[in-house]
Amino acid sequence: MDTNNVTVVKVWGTHYERGYAAGLLLADEIKSIYEGYIMPELGSNLSLAKSIIQDGSHISFDSKYITEAQGMIDGMQEAGISLPGVDYLDILVANSFLDIQGLGGMFSNLNMSNGCSSLLSWGQATINTELEGEGLISRHLDWSDDAALVNNQVIIVHFPDETDEQPWLMVGFAGQ
After folding, report:
1. pLDDT tens by residue, 71-93
2. Cα separation values, 36 from 65, 73, 174, Å
3. Against a cut of 0.85, is the pTM above it?
4. Kind and range of the H or E run holding 134
5. Which of 30, 38, 39 is nearest to 73 (CA)?
6. What secondary structure letter does DSSP report for 21?
């Protein structure tokens, strides 16, 4: 399969297990994204962003995603990647920094120019395909030419053990 230099990873299990597998398999890439993009972009705002995530009053996460983020950290450590002072909160910050940026006055000196675009097709657009009118969304990772982002794009295919969840895939960056 031609992946055009995009890493494709398949993960199975619970949220924690899938996070652990992603952390283990993508440890170097997650470190690169964190050190090369998240830390420089947030700068001195990083500790405030972490406290906002921990507080949960402005942005909150379901416990399964907190568990998944902890699994990622544990997987990275198992892979031998150590980022002193980095914990599950950093993973959650990296996954919500656009939301954090949107908190306005709390981050008045934050000047991140980013965002991605998506295209959703359904109905007549997919009627003569295997989808038979069902929806399909494509995500375009087009917000930055930052090397840490460009070099660490991934597709992660999830096969959840949870009976109330279905298999899905994520097109994005290592650590998401």
Report:
1. 999 999 999 998 999 999 999 99
2. 24, 17, 12
3. no
4. none
5. 30
6. H
